[in-house]
Amino acid sequence: MKNSSSPVLVVGSIAFDTIKTPLGEQKEILGGSATYFSYAASLFAPVRLLSVIGSDFPGQQIKKFKKRGIDTSGLQVRQGKTFRWCGRYEKNLKEAKTVSFSLNVMDGYLPKLPAHYRNSQYVFLANIDPETQLKTLEQVYSPKLVVCDTMNIWVKTSRPILKKLLKKVDVLLINDEEARMLTGQENLISACRIILRWGPKTAIIKKGEHGVILAAGKDNFFFTPAFPTTRVSDPTGAGDSFGGGFTGYIAATGNPSAANMRKALIYGAVVASFTVEGFGLKSLEKIDISDVERRVNRIKKLTQL
Fold first, then answer.
1. CB 290 within 8 A of CB 271
2. At what angle do helices 238-253 and 33-41 cross, to 10 degrees?
3. Which residues are registered as beta bridge partners of 16?
């Protein structure tokens, strides 16, 4: 699948995470929105990674990226420490509470695309500040599909630039609480309709264990369940992995139609289900496309009338 697939360009963060859940704690493990996305999308298609790392980042990890078909030409290495994040989950594992974070080399990061990145047909703007997302998009010639992820902090602090960005993207990926915050609507169907009026052709709202809503018009809605896993160890990166599975599948099939996006939703949900079963990237590192296909088939059987 990868060899004939169009590469996917992703811009986002690379971090070292310290994570505590009711099931345990892991310190200084690899994370970040671009990392999770890249590991997920590389199951389907080659990935062009655009981010910044510190001088403390291990060269062995860059080799791991390359082994997965992830192009690291767009990695900036700056003197100093790589971005750090520390988070804690309560018993219900619904949302992480940020204990501390240090931007380090992410502070003032300006993306600069290598020449061969500029012709990318599929672009994913992973969770990072909207200004950096916009500056990245301005350097891409004429993408076929642009998918944008965001989160509550950018809705609160960078709303004007976020709304400017939304006019230039095809798909907005957002969770349910963020959608309510962004639109002021409690009802998620109403929230989708407002988002579509702001520019994106498609709005995707993630509802965690309750699945995903896709809206592509006033009355064009599609709903898919989450994969019913019983092993949830660490939800960190689940949304980024969903984005990787979704966009990677579209790039692999070369088909960004509304009908194919419905299929891509299921692939995204399945990849995310693997992520939550282990701390950090532990589960994603172990799977291949055949593991994904088996779970996709199980979802099809579960939802068949």
1. no
2. 40
3. 30, 84
For residue 84, the cross-strand partners are 16, 102
- Which residues, listed in sequence order, are joined to residue 123 by a DSSP beta bridge? 9, 146
Nearest to 218 by CA among 198, 194, 193, 200: 193
Q: Using the structure block, give the residue that is written with the tokens 């200084």.
A: 28
Residue ranges per domain, the chain? 8-302
Helix (H/G/I), strand (E/B), else coil: 24: strand
The residue type of 8 is: V
CA 84 to chain centre: 18
CA-nearest of 276, 288, 283 to 89 is: 276
Residue 3 has pLDDT above 60, yes or no: no
Cα gap 231→215, rounded to integer Å: 29
Per this entry, what is the length of the chain?
A: 305
CA distance 136 to 12: 10
Tokens 């594992």: give the residue: 93
Residues 6+ apart with CB under 8 A from 13: 32, 33, 34, 35, 51, 83, 106, 126, 127, 128
CATH number of the domain located at residue range(s) 8-302 in this protein: 3.40.1190.20
Q: Interior CA angle at 249 toward 298 and 150, to 5°? A: 105
pLDDT tens track for 64-107:
999 999 999 999 999 999 999 999 998 878 778 889 989 999 99
Residue with tokens 């997965």: 68
Q: Cα dist. 236→13, 92, 97, 224, 232 in Å?
A: 14, 14, 11, 21, 10
**What would the two tokens of residue 235 be?**
């939800």
| Residue 195 pLDDT | 97
